[in-house]
Amino acid sequence: MTNAFASSADLERKPETFTALAEGVYALTAEGDPNVGAIEGADFLVCFEARATPVAARRWLALLRERTDKPVRYLVLSHYHAVRVLGASAFDAREIVTHEATRALIAERGAADWASEHARMPRLFEEPESIPGLTWPTLTFTDRMTIPLGGDHGDLVLAYCGRGHTAGDIVAWLPTHKILFAGDLVECAAALYTGDAFHDDWATSTLDTVAAFEAETLVGGRGPVAHGRAQMAAAITQSRHFINQLRDTVAHIRNCGGSVRQAFQAAHTALSPRYGHWPIFAHCLPFNVQRYWDELSGQDWPLIWTPERDREVWANLRGPQ
Ligand SMILES: [Zn+2]
């Protein structure tokens, strides 16, 4: 285990891969950095996720502008995390769409989350002074929202699948192409961050609901695009297995009267053979273990992460004793 805090020592920019998933449907992946997507309608664009800063978002927009000059009518944000939302101003979107719970989370903890994520992942915050402030949705929903794309482009369906990575994750589903943008509910060969999660719901009914789309192409929150049913199913299975191993080991130590630090060590031992080489594994695990420990202790609503609390938990779980 390296001792650098979170991803603070990860300073080398990852190569970015632009992929056309179908006619007018795009994704940008970056070896474990947060993924983004875009869907062309007849006369507008829908963008999915905004990146951490307007400067980082503009690099993505420049690639899109080589394909289309349609204006961004909808910017869809899968959840409230800073590295996904704070680049929003670059899109000049007519509407910014989130789940209703995401609006509440931004009001409750958006500023704290910004400070926390900036300290954890400084590389992603390119030119942080370009961020004009918190990103606020202009349109929210609780269950499902359909965007008719116009012409023969079909519909884009935005759906809530239950509590998971946060209290308000949404996915974007393109039925005509069977393409699913899953946000951080599913990762493709990248570690899951569960520090704001509802582990029990996520590993059971929420992932069942995601799987029920029967996507043939899946863009997870991080990692490469999953092409075909087999890769899609593998991404969901891996995500579920990661959460379940975390749940089992943390619950076992807690039931035996152990400490949260011992739970972290047990989770590290259990998860690292299979997942230790995945992006952000070492960064995420202490926060993941602390959150599930809190859940088992009856803390249903995730405690707010701040740079101070991040350091405290890091030191308590990983520091010398
Ligand atoms: Zn997230």
Largest sheet: 7 strands, mixed
Strand elements, count: 13
Shape: globular
C-alpha end-to-end distance: 16 Å
Helical stretch count?
Answer: 8
**Fraction of residues in helix:** 25-40%
Q: How large a portion of the residues is in β-strands, by DSSP E?
A: 15-25%
Q: Could you list the spans in which at least 5 consecutive residues all have pLDDT below 50?
A: none
Structural class: alpha/beta
Q: What are the secondary-structure elements, in order, as H or E? A: EEEEHEHEHEEEEEHEEHHHH
Strand order of the largest sheet: 1-2-3-4-5-6-7
Ligand names: zinc ion
Integer-rounded radius of gyration: 19 Å
Q: Could you tell me the mean pLDDT?
A: 96
Question: Could you describe the 3D structure shown?
Answer:
This protein has 321 residues and is α/β, with parallel strands linked by helices. It is built from eight helices and 13 strands. It has helices at 54-65, 82-85, 100-120, 199-211, 228-255, 260-275, 281-296, 307-318, and strands at 17-22, 25-30, 33-40, 45-48, 72-76, 95-99, 139-141, 144-148, 155-160, 170-174, 179-183, 217-220, 226-227. Strands 1-2-3-4-5-6-7 form a seven-stranded mixed β-sheet. A six-stranded mixed β-sheet has the order 8-9-10-11-12-13, with helices on one face. Helix 2 (82-85) links the parallel strand 5 and strand 6 (95-99). The two termini are 16 Å apart. The mean pLDDT is 96. The structure holds zinc ion.
